[in-house]
């Protein structure tokens, strides 16, 4: 055994020296590498099988977990996207409302729709402003496009608004093109108004803009109400059938404007105007009074200077008697006192 071991050791050393120094063993080494490669593959096969099976099960588990995670993130992102879309629409509506409030001369306040009347035969909504916020009965309500209605019921923190399309509501309007006046009444349809008692020969055309006329002393004048959609003329009827579409988005608007106009009655406004006019006239008279007083004294002081003094003097010189009963004293009152004695002494 020792001789065999020694022989193998010497052979191995010789083969290493020959392989390092010479190229004789390269073909043998290449052939041996092919044989050893197969053996390496066979010996490594169990480990590779185990790793493949483990990776298959591990990959499936990881994929399932990753899929669930991605689905959750997708739902969250979709929810945020919907919220962003809602915020974007809200921003657009508020900007429109802000632009419309800039065109309103009266004081306005933004209100939000918080409820609707469940009765399908009435068109009423509830807003988040009430008596504590200064809202009054009959106060006009409009959105970014036009008039919506008026406040008909007050609560401390909420109010109920009657829309224009309610069957019990009417508003005086006029055609913006020619000023023709009419009454627009609700039909129960949120997309339609009707003009009542319009003459068949009236100048109303499709597409005309109807604005509030202000004659009812409830709605301010000049606000858009509706647009004429259809005009039907019937030769057998005295009145034409005029249908209009409200300019306001009655069933879509969420943010509204409460218009705080002048709450005085027509009589109070007339009395205030008359008092203001009287005060203005009195202010004009007081500064002019001294000028009038200065003008009037001039005619009073002017008459003593003119000629009435000289005729009595000439008459006194031509008179024969020295003592005259009435003429002499009368002129003496107009002349200075020193002049009368002088003439008397000369005549004497």
From TrEMBL:
Keywords: Cell shape. The keyword Membrane does not apply. It comes from the Bacteria. The keyword Transmembrane helix does not apply. InterPro entries: Cell/Rod_1, Cell/Rod_MreC_2, MreC, MreC_beta-barrel_core. Gene3D superfamilies: Rod shape-determining protein MreC, domain 1 (2.40.10.340), Rod shape-determining protein MreC, domain 2 (2.40.10.350). Residues 114-259 form the Rod shape-determining protein MreC beta-barrel core domain. Residues 272-299, 312-323, 331-348 have a biased composition (Low complexity). Residues 268-348 are annotated as: Disordered. Residues 300-311 have a biased composition (Pro residues). PANTHER family: CELL SHAPE-DETERMINING PROTEIN MREC. Belongs to the MreC family. This is Cell shape-determining protein MreC. It comes from Pseudomonas taetrolens.
């Amino acid at each position: 055994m020792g001789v065999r071991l020694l022989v193998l050791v010497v052979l191995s050393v010789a083969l290493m020296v020959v392989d390092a120094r010479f190229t004789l063993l390269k073909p043998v080494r290449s052939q041996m590498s092919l044989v050893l490669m197969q053996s390496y593959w066979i010996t490594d096969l169990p480990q590779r099988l185990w790793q493949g099976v483990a990776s298959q099960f591990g990959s499936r588990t990881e994929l399932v977990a990753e899929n669930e995670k991605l689905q959750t993130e997708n739902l969250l992102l979709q929810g945020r996207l919907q919220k962003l879309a809602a915020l974007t629409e809200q921003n657009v509506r508020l900007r429109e409302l802000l632009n419309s409030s800039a065109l309103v001369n009266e004081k306005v306040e933004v209100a939000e729709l918080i409820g609707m009347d469940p009765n399908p035969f009435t068109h009423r909504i509830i807003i988040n402003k009430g008596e504590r916020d200064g809202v009054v009965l009959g106060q006009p309500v409009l959105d970014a496009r036009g008039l919506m209605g008026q406040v008909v019921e007050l609560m401390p923190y909420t109010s109920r608004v009657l829309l224009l399309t309610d069957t019990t509501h009417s508003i005086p309007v006029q055609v913006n093109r020619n000023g023709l006046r009419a009454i627009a009444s609700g039909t129960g349809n949120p997309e339609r108004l009707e003009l009542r008692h319009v003459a068949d020969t009236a100048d109303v055309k499709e597409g005309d803009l109807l604005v509030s006329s202000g004659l009812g002393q409830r709605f301010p004048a000049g606000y858009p109400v509706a647009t004429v959609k259809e005009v039907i003329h019937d030769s057998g009827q005295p009145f034409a059938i005029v249908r209009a579409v409200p300019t306001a988005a009655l069933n879509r608007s969420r943010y509204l404007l409460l218009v705080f106009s002048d709450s005085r009655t027509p009589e109070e406004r007339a009395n205030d105007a008359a008092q203001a006019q009287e005060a203005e006239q009195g202010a004009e008279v007081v500064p002019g009074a001294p000028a009038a007083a200065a003008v009037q004294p001039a005619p009073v002081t002017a008459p003593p200077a003119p000629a009435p003094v000289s005729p009595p003097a000439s008459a006194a010189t031509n008179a024969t008697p020295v003592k005259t009963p009435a003429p002499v004293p009368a002129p003496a009152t107009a002349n200075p006192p020193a002049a009368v004695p002088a003439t008397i002494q000369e005549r004497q």
